[in-house]
Amino acid sequence: MLGKRWILAALLAVAVGVYLLPSPIDPKPHVLKGPPPALEGPLAVNTRLQKGRRLFTGKLHGPESFTADEEGNVYTGTVDGKLWRIGPDDSLTLVTHMGQDLPECGSSTDYEPLCGRPHGVRLDRHGQLIVADSYFGLHSVDPETGEKTLLLANSQGADGVPFAFLNGLEISSQTGIVYFTDSSSRWGRRHVKLEVIELNSLGRLLSFDPQTGSVTVLLDALYMPNGIALSPDEHFLLLAETSIGRILRFWLKGPKAGTKEIVMDNMIGYPDNIRLSDHGTFLVGITTTRFRKATPPFLDLIAPYPSIKRFLAKVIPLSWYGVLLPHYALVLELGSDGEIVGTLHDPEGRLTWAISDVFQHRGRTYLGSTDLPFLPVLQGWDS
């Protein structure tokens, strides 16, 4: 009897201790618009994403975003802080390290503040790579020599608020203006899971003028703003708010210039990058699916309950949340008004899953990821 009392007392002490521990997050209640849409119509399951192959297995870890030059070279950044050039013959060449060149780079997110983590990558009008590194800010990189030039440091930020998590990137071919997102002013890339669970609105859409060095906040109070894509006429851009499964349109020109509107909400998954396809549509990589099942999706379930979120953030290691993520790959194809015109699925994750970017170049489609140790590619875009 005495032994049982000691056990109960010990359990009670542990429970009280956990309760009194400060939580790293400060969530607010949030209710999503409704249950996820059904897998029917243009969302119907198919296997189009299984018709590809993997390149550079074990050599490229988390090729997250892509761009290409006129010679057919494709550029990408990886989780170990490196920038790479993929030749037309599928050769692989290191361009540069965004941070320190340490043996530990890529082994743990704990080293990312030292090694860097390039996210958005684009080529400007002068043939230079513009890179949004989550930790080190905006850089210009010579693709031939690897020489880096800092354009805008995270510590400098905008309007007195430093950047913590630079992410998406787009460049106007008309003006050279660089559009980019800072996903959070609180959480860095290595704490992205806390950012998603907390569900805060501390992200911003910004622009940078390389001619003057000026930075402008275009939108604030965003929920983990991520990928962005300019429309073909550059009248607007689409922006993914990852943590709440939403896509916004921000008008750059015309009578609505400077305003935003929702073009897609209550999505089937959490959007990452958005890219313009080679046939004028928008391609959205879904980093995690959000399907109807017997019970609501995990993030839907805990969204209205800050106390549960605080508790989970205290007791569950960040690495454990990965077991909740399905090995399911999904790409959405959107028309100019945000309507779904098609989807590509890999229901079993045979080729890939957790897609970050969908980039088309010379008849090939490159599928990005934040952590996977290979580069999946599709040849063609057939249904």
From TrEMBL:
Residues 167-255 form the Strictosidine synthase conserved region domain. InterPro entries: 6-blade_b-propeller_TolB-like, Strictosidine_synth_cons-reg. Residues 1-17 form the signal peptide. Keywords: Glycoprotein, Signal. GO terms for cellular component: endomembrane system. It holds the Pfam family Str_synth. GO terms for molecular function: hydrolase activity. Belongs to the strictosidine synthase family. This is Adipocyte plasma membrane-associated protein. It comes from Cottoperca gobio. The lineage of its organism: Eukaryota, Metazoa, Chordata, Craniata, Vertebrata.
